[in-house]
Amino acid sequence: xxxxQSYRFSFGPWNISEGADPFGPEVRPAFAHEDxxxxxxxxxxxxxxxxxxxxxxxxxxxxxEQILRKAGEVKTMLSNQGLxxxxxxxxxxxxxxxxxxxxxxxxxxxxxxxxxxxxxxxxIARAIDCKAIVLWLSREGTYIREAKDAKVAYExxxxxxxxxxxxxxxxxxxxxxxPNEPTDQAYVPTIGHAxxxxxxxxxxxxxxxxxxxAHALLAGLDPSDEMAFALAHDKLGSVHLNxxxxxxxxxDKNFGGANLRVGFNQVRVLEEAGYGSRGEFIGxxxxxxxxxxxxxxxxxxxASREIFLHLVDKVRALxxxxxxxxxxxxxxxxxxxxxxxxLLGVK
Length: 347
Ligand code: XLS
Ligand code: MG
Hints:
2 domains; globular; binds magnesium ion; 10 strands; alpha/beta; binds D-xylose
């Protein structure tokens, strides 16, 4: 048997936040973005996930040269801290020009803005030596179904993916599905949709998915099965591990915090498929609870990583022959009791 996989972890600077929510303002002092890089290694993380404007704030008002200069500075900061940029995602949901979506907007000028911004995002990724672009399609959807022609919208998404592949011959595109929020219904709600787009594209080897646990749960699906589907097609670019307590707003709770067994099964599927052995990161997307005091707050990141690693130990300690016996006998009652006892640490 090969040596057990050791995992590398990543998160985005937005995971260290000031605690604002839709009902109230910041509750913790701000902590400068650029000071966050020094926190990664001591917390056990080596990958940084970015939005394009995390790298280059105010990028819409800067020239190409200014953008590249700023990106170069960030590249140096990362290498000073021994960090790897995992992905850059165009933040296409903040601008006035994307209130009704970006690539799927009915307005040609909105779509032109979205494409310009995407090119700049790829330029930034290149400038910091990052090989992947994440497309979280946020406002690509509708509030009422009649607002857009959904077939045309999917054609526009495919056209965008193909243009991105043409624009840069090395980058990978990782599509991050989510079924709703901020829109009522989002296009590309599941990993199946993302992978269909990948295979329809002109170079499917460079188009994959990023699965966020909470997004799969919001679609009423089990994240471990979503991950298994992507892995079976060799299309799991990355993950955003977190948790979600039912069909509510996107909670970004600590991994395993709401449903430990659902967390365990994600780890089991990743581990059994050898995820990570080609350098893939265990990415987290977790929010500190609003009531948490301090600056910067990082306990939620530490906790999620620790829970993940405990679950790896649980997966490695499974009695595989016993599981096979239960499967052969189709005794799923016994299998379930064994799994729950195993998780509880009782014999
Ligand atoms: C939203 C996403 C987003 C992406 C990057 O839920 O997690 O932050 O991962 O655009
Ligand atoms: Mg995410």
